[in-house]
Here is the input.
Amino acid sequence: MRILALECSTDVGSVALIEDDRVAWERSWGGSQKGRQAWVADLDGWVRSGEIPLSDVDLFAVGVGPGAFSGLRIAIALMQGLALPVRAPLYGVSSGAALAARVGHDLGASRVVVVGDARRNELWLGQFCCDTGFPDQEIPWAVVPFDRLPPDYAVPDRVWVTADWHRIGAQLKAVCPFGCRLVEERRVPEARDVGLLAGAGLAAGHASLPLTPLYLHPAVFVQPLDAAAR
Amino acid sequence: MLVLGIETSCDETAAAVVRDGRFVLSNVVHTQIAQHRPYGGVVPEIASRQHVEHLPAVLEEAMRAAGVDWSSLDAVAVTHGPGLSTSLLVGLAAAKGLAIRLNKPLVGINHLEAHLYSAFLGPDAPEPAALMPFVSLIVSGGHTAFVRVDGIGRYRLLGRTVDDAAGEAFDKGANLLKLGYPGGPAIDKAALGADPAAVRFPRGILRNLPARLTGLDARCCVSYSGLKTSLLYYLRDHPLAGAGDPVVGSLAASFQEAIVDTLLNRVAHALGNLRTLAVVGGVSLNSRLRGKLAALAEKRRFRLILAQPAFCADNAAMVAGLANHKLAATPPPAEAFLLDAEPNLGIGE
Here is the structure.
C-alpha cells in the first residue's frame, strides 16, 4: 500500500510517502523560512517531477492535531482536494499520537504524555500507551492551567514531550511530575509517523478521526445574544 | 471552457461549475446563517470550522449537479480576498489540492471583482463588452462601493463606505429592533407596507473624507455609523413596547429608507456621464432598493442592470465565471500555488 501523508499541526510541516510500511520519501519545511503557502508550490513541483506519484497513492493521511488551526485546516483541505476527484480514502490521524509513537519508539517509553501551549497560561495534554504499533490514548485531551494538572498525571515513569518547548519549556520543567522524564527539546509530529499510523490504523480496523482539526477550545468565548440578555 | 469555482471568503461555503464564463451548470451554496444567528453576526472562527466541515460535500454536489467529470474541468478558480483570513485559507487550500490533482491551472480571484462580474452570469445577462464602460454599485454585508468598470480587470474605485457596509447597517439595525439575523431580509420583511417616512433618520452626507480615503470623491462615499447610532438613541427615547410592537414596522421601513436613500443619493454623481449602473451583492436583493433604483433609472434615463438573485449573495458561480475571462486574457502565472489569502484586498485603488 502506498500512503501520502501530510502533517502541518506546527510551523514545521512535512510530507511523506509510505510504501509497504516503509518511509520511501519525505520532505519537511519550516514556517519561518518561507511564506505560509510556499510549501504548496513545492508540493506541486514534487508531483510534477514524479517524486510523488500521485496517481499511485492508495491512501491519503493527514494529521488533525491538536495544533495550529490554520496549518491543520490548510492540510486537511488540501488533502481533500487531492483525494476527492478520484474518491481516494483520506484518513485523519491524531498528530499527538504521531508524536507519541515517535518518542515512544525513540526512547523505548511505554507511556508518553503529549503537551502543548494552549495560551492564556494553560496547556493542553493527553497521555498515550505506546506498547503496540498504534498508540492508544489513555487519557483524553484536556486544557488545564499550568498550576492545576489533573491527578491522573501525577504518576512517575512517563515521558513528557512537547512541540512548544520554545514557548513553555520553562513552565513544563516546573510542573513535570517527579519521576517522569521530560524531553528537554522541541519535538514536532512528522508526516512519516502520520502515514505509518494511518496504515497501521487501517489494518487494525480503526476508523479515521473526523477530518476537522482537533479543537480543544470552543469556537467563541462570548455568549450568544439571547444568553447574554438573560 | 469549464471552470470550477470555490468561494469561502465569509460565511457561505460555495462551489460552482460555469461554462464559457456565463452558463452556470451548478451553483451550490451552503449557508452558515443558523450557526451565526445566535451571535447576531458572523463569528470568524465558527465560519472557518464550518468551511472545513462542509466544503468537500459542497464540491461533490457542485460536480454532480453540473453533470461533468472532474477530468473535464479546464481550471480551478478560488477567492483569495478580501474576506476572513481563516475562511479564505480553507477554500484556497482545497483549490490548490484540486488543481494539483487535476493538473489544471489555479486562478486566484478577487471577491469584489467577482461580485462585479455577477451581473454577467446567466444566458440572458448582457455580454461584458456590450456594457463597458459602466458604474457598478457593490452592496453587501461586508462591502459598499461604487466602482467604474472600463473592462474586465480595469477598475477605478470611485467611493466606498467610510465605516459600516450597508449589510452591516441592516444587521445592526435589525439587532436593535430585535428582528433577528441576517438583518437585511428581516428588515425588508418587517418594512413591507409600513410608512418609510415615519421617522426621519440621517442620510450620512460626507463633506470631508478621512485621510485613508484620500483620492476618493466624498460624493461617492457613504457612512452608516451615524444612522445606527440615531436608531439606538431613538429607541432609548422611545422604547419598544415589546415583541410585536406595531411601531417596529415603521421603524424598520424608516431605517431601510435611510440606507437606500444614502446609496441613491450617490448614484447620479457616481455615474457622471455614463449611462449604465450595475448593482451587485447580497443587499441588492433588498426590495426597496430595487424598487427605488428602478424608479431612479427611469427618471434619470440610465440603464439599470441587476445581478440575478441567485448570484447576488456570495456564490462561486461569479468566481468561476470571472476566471474564464482571466484565463482567456492571460495564462495563470507559474507562481499560482504561492497564492495566499489577502484579507484586505481592494479593487481599483
Strands of chain A lie at 2-7, 12-19, 22-30, 59-63, 90-93, 111-119, 122-129, 136-145, 159-162, 181-182.
